[in-house]
Design a protein that fits this description.
Distance between the termini: 21 Å
CATH topology of the largest domain: Quinone Oxidoreductase, Chain A, domain 1
Strand content: 25-35%
Number of strands: 15
Order of helices and strands: EEEHEEEEHEHEHEHEHEHEHEHE
Number of helices: 9
Oligomer: single chain
Structural class: alpha/beta
Shape: globular
Number of domains: 2
CATH architecture of the largest domain: Alpha-Beta Complex
Largest sheet: 7 strands, mixed
Length: 331
């Protein structure tokens, strides 16, 4: 019987997860049942939301089980199949990541067209991060032509797409924050942001002052970024709350924005969202994003680490800003 390797969560982390919270396990691959496939994974996704699933708390998605393989987006090639849906050699997208091979029902894998873009794009610009950006702007913030848009974490997988989509949808100005001078230059010089700043260079509220008032804020960071954005929102501005990565590894509750009375005075709308609640937007997203990508109007970058043994380093790198664009693990 063939064996493979997979990564298990061995302990619940407090703070930033480390190697001591995971275990790489050799397992036997089971024989295929009816309508199943064996997939050899080629690229695995690491995403900030995975940190929340490592905690044993009630949330919008169940926590990862201890002593069991973690899950996440992955693309790979079908090596065996008992299904009419998928054939040997098909490239597929599925959620059985954090492992080198996966046996799963064929209905849980989606065949990909890799004739125009690499399979890895379906984990980033044409995948969940891209759809998240699209939903946050179109369904949640209800972006309008002429809006000024601010995106935090703008050099990440979601933020880099959000800024570009905002421009494609008619935003008058797009501003981004990022964590290094190189990332700031990428936003302005390649992605077409009107302005960007390094949040290490001073308080967000102070750096954003020259670029407001802001009509739409796409929040990936939370904390100081959210407080600073509230200061500079226009009346009746809309905030799409996508994530708060600044606090994901906090070991004690962090103080919330100290200026929430401004939400009342400015009549702001703050709305959190989960992309999986908006599957009705997927067909519009694939149509629009596919056309923009084909026309060269949607730029994306991928940061790779190599090998399953680099999976933990890749995940931790999300929190130290190691990635430009989408962070991926290449097998």
């Amino acid at each position: 019987m063939a064996t493979t390797r997979e990564i298990h969560l061995s302990a619940r982390p407090s703070g930033l997860p480390g190697p001591e919270h995971f275990r790489t396990v050799d397992v036997d691959l089971p024989p295929l049942g009816d309508d199943e496939v064996l997939v050899r994974n080629t690229v695995l996704s690491v995403d900030p939301y995975m940190r929340g699933r490592m905690n044993d708390v009630k949330s919008y998605t169940p926590p990862f089980a201890l002593d069991a393989p973690l899950e996440g987006g992955a693309v790979g090639v079908v090596e065996e199949s008992t299904s009419d849906r998928l054939q040997v050699g098909d490239t597929v997208l599925h959620m059985a990541g954090w492992r080198e091979h996966a046996v799963l029902p064929a209905r849980q894998a989606r065949r990909l067209d890799v004739s125009q873009v690499p399979a890895s794009a379906y984990l980033g610009v044409l995948g969940m991060p891209g759809l998240t950006a699209y939903v946050g702007l179109t369904r949640v913030a209800q972006l309008k032509e002429g809006d000024t848009v601010f995106v935090s974490g703008a050099a990440g997988a979601v933020g880099s797409v959000a800024g570009q989509i905002a421009r494609r949808l008619g935003a008058a100005r797009v501003i981004g924050s990022a964590g290094s001078p190189e990332k700031v230059s990428w936003l302005v010089d390649e992605l077409g942001f009107d302005a960007a700043f390094d949040y290490h260079d001073g308080p967000v509220a102070k750096q954003l002052a020259a670029h407001g008032p802001v009509d739409v804020y796409f929040d990936n960071v939370g904390g100081e970024h959210l407080e600073g954005a509230i200061f500079h929102m226009a009346d009746f501005g809309r905030i799409a709350l996508c994530g708060a990565i600044a606090g994901y590894n906090a070991q004690a509750p962090e103080p919330g924005p100290r200026n929430l009375m401004m939400v009342v005075a400015k009549r702001l709308t703050l709305r959190g969202f989960i992309v999986s609640d908006h599957q009705e937007a997927a067909s519009d997203f694939y149509r629009d994003a596919g056309a923009w990508l084909a026309a060269g109007e949607l730029v994306h970058r991928e940061t790779f680490v190599d090998g399953l043994d680099s999976m933990i380093d890749g995940f931790r790198g999300l929190y130290s800003g190691d990635n430009v664009g989408k962070m991926l693990v290449r097998l």
